[in-house]
Amino acid sequence: MSVEPANKKPAPAGDEPDGPPSFSPYDHPAAGWGAGMSVGKFLAKQGALVDGPRAIMKMNHEDGGFDCPGCAWPDDLKGLHLDICENGIKHVTWEMTHKRVGAEFFAAHTVTELSGWSDHALEEQGRLTAPMRYDAAADRYVPISWADAFELVGRTLRELDDPNRAAFYTSGRLGNEATFLYQLMARELGTNNLPDCSNMCHEASGRAMKASLGTGKGTVDLKDWETTDALFVMGVNAASNAPRMLTALVEAYKRGAQIVHVNPLVEAASRKAIIPHEFAAMATFHATPTGTMNLQPRIGGDMALIRGIAKAVFDSPDPKALDIEFIERHTHGFDDYRALCEATPWDEIEHQSGVTRGDIRRAADVYRRADRSIISWCLGVTQHDHGVDTIREIVNLLLLRGNLGREGAGPCPIRGHSNVQGNRTCGIDHRPSDAFLDRLADACGIDPPREHGLDTVRAIEAMHRGDVTVFVAMGGNFALAAPDTPYTFEALRNCALTVQVSTKLNRSHLVHGRDALILPCLGRTEKDEQRRGLQSTSVEDSMSMVHLSVGMKKPASPHLLSEPAIVAGMARAALPDSVTPWEDYVADYDRIRDTMASALDGFEDFNRRVRLPLGFRIKQPARELIFDTPTGRAEFSSAPLPDVVPTDGILTLGTMRSHDQWNTTIYSDNDRYRGVKNLRTLIFMNADDMRERGIGTFDLVDITSHARDGSTRTLRGYTAIAYDIPRGSSAGYMPEMNVLCAIGDYSVQSDQPLMKNVKVTVERAG
Hints:
Elements (H helix, E strand, L loop, with lengths): L1 E2 L18 E2 L7 E2 L6 H7 L5 H11 L24 H10 L4 E2 L1 H6 L2 H5 L3 H6 L2 E2 L3 E4 L4 E4 L2 H13 L7 E5 L5 H14 L13 H11 L8 H6 L2 E5 L3 H4 L3 H10 L3 E5 L9 E3 L4 H6 L3 E2 L3 E3 L6 H14 L8 H7 E2 L1 H10 L2 H8 L3 H13 L3 E5 L1 H4 L4 H14 L9 E4 L6 H6 L8 H11 L11 H10 L4 E5 L3 H4 L3 H9 L3 E6 L12 E6 L8 E2 L2 E2 L2 E4 L4 E5 L13 H12 L7 H6 L1 H11 L6 H4 L6 E2 L16 E2 L15 E6 L4 E2 L2 E2 L9 E2 L4 E4 L1 H6 L7 E7 L5 E11 L6 E5 L24 E7 L2
Parallel strand pairs: 1-32, 3-11, 4-5, 8-17, 9-10, 9-15, 10-13, 14-25, 15-16, 17-18, 18-19, 26-33, 30-32
Antiparallel strand pairs: 2-29, 6-7, 6-19, 11-12, 20-21, 22-23, 23-24, 26-34, 27-28, 30-33, 31-32, 31-34
Helix pairs in contact: 2-3, 7-26, 8-26, 9-20, 14-17, 14-18, 14-20, 22-28, 23-25
């Protein structure tokens, strides 16, 4: 199977690039606000030059505040009003565009025609305005009433011979109240088939920390970031994926904290930043450093690197290098882990990590000398076969010096989407615990199923086999976000019905089942007026803070429904005998929160606490050194180091986002922090790897992936660019490169697709 570059297909008028592709590796501006990006040009293109920034600041002043639907970085603890970033403005403005996609648009374009458009062109058409149903005879979407749409969904679900023939997906943009109703509907129907975006991103984090600490979440908060002595930032490009983290990095640097960035690519966020609320710095373009050390492991080499740091800590003559009192009182398995570290040769650590012993020892000195350390990580660590083992190794290192249960210390996964952590907290989990189901049953008067359901990979496989015939997606762009794009497309097209709840047109509306619905919903920026007045929704950030979000803009169309209203409409149609008060829940979201307070651990007194300034933090037992593990202690792990060194001729490819991109939404073909303009179909390679293959910069190449089952997948005509990346490693953009990740190439530890560990060969095109 081979695929040509997607962005070489014709796009409709108005989607032309700004010029020829270019690459300027030495012209990287400082990360952050005022760093050379023409935000004004972007806003003007969306018809919201003033509305975007002004709306964000206005909504952040209103009672209840506003939560950006972008990243999940916490709000400033001091209530900073200018706590916004370039990507937040772009994300909100993208949602607030004045452009509309209504019945006239669909009447003018067939699905076949739209399938040839670029993904950027599809979303740039604007906001969806009314429910639509696919008409196979006309190959077009045609209008349908909300009542008829709900009846179609309800009838299809009622007629299933087994509720497990339906799957209910959600992305991280869904608020907590809609999330709770969504999982309640699925479980009242009788299935735990609740795949979500976390299955592709941070599943490994949850499983690792649950095994090590008895919790699936990080233990630190923003105050810890403000007081720590050392920060280790692993596998995350903060400038693009969590821009407000830059403020914390700058402030940490100013107070003298050590900041170690661990990434195969030296990203802009590890250099310097201009912070928006520092007006003098903005006016003078004065940047502050955001790092004190960079380590570049080979892709997949993070676990060996952390093992090396731990080995160096054990080797240290410093009697205070280990916190023996903490280890003896609060941990289990220390002796086995110590023996494992001592038995792991330095040569193996250097070979597997790709980092020299000297650099590892220097990083270990930073860790050993710091009284309090935080280790944070993102998808560069999780999307590997050994992701769970790597994160457990991170926890091992933290335990050695008692970096848990005190201010300024602990593990900190960086969730990349607005409410993906809240989704899991509020019930989107295909493997629910008995304790969660027991409380849900008592609070809601239902008998939830106990059999585990399907995650993302298993749901795709089940759709492909025909075992799942109904697929409902609350937000996101599943067709492009998932691995093995052609296989996923076939799976979706094999369904009897696909339902997409969305704000804007995307690829998942064009890759659909035999019957298909587009159900447009309110955006987070918009007023949600229900029978009992203006409603608010709650979200949970990456550090377990829960707070309210209130939209203040007029909805893009009078025909839009809120996400809770859409879930309730489908549920009432599918469950006509349900005793759940769906209509009352939609009329007043406080009613939903009252039920959540009874059903969810940590949400007691929900309605009062969520209205406190900045909301409330969900209790975190591991932070208090209470561990829900079999031994009641924090567990050291003793996993062997995986062999991550590619064989001769093979490169390990990691997929990633560009700066002008948010998940599968492509704002432009630029990636300014990496020096790229007007190009997405590229592969970053080590210069020596390129010379070895006779490839020059800007040469066109063919990239072939080699799956575990022996199958191959090829992308043709991509542009090779020499980059500062370790030998044997390479990188390129998702979602274009998702085609290379075979559906069967997922972690045996977490079921996550190996998006950061694809084995490829690269050769000159033709």
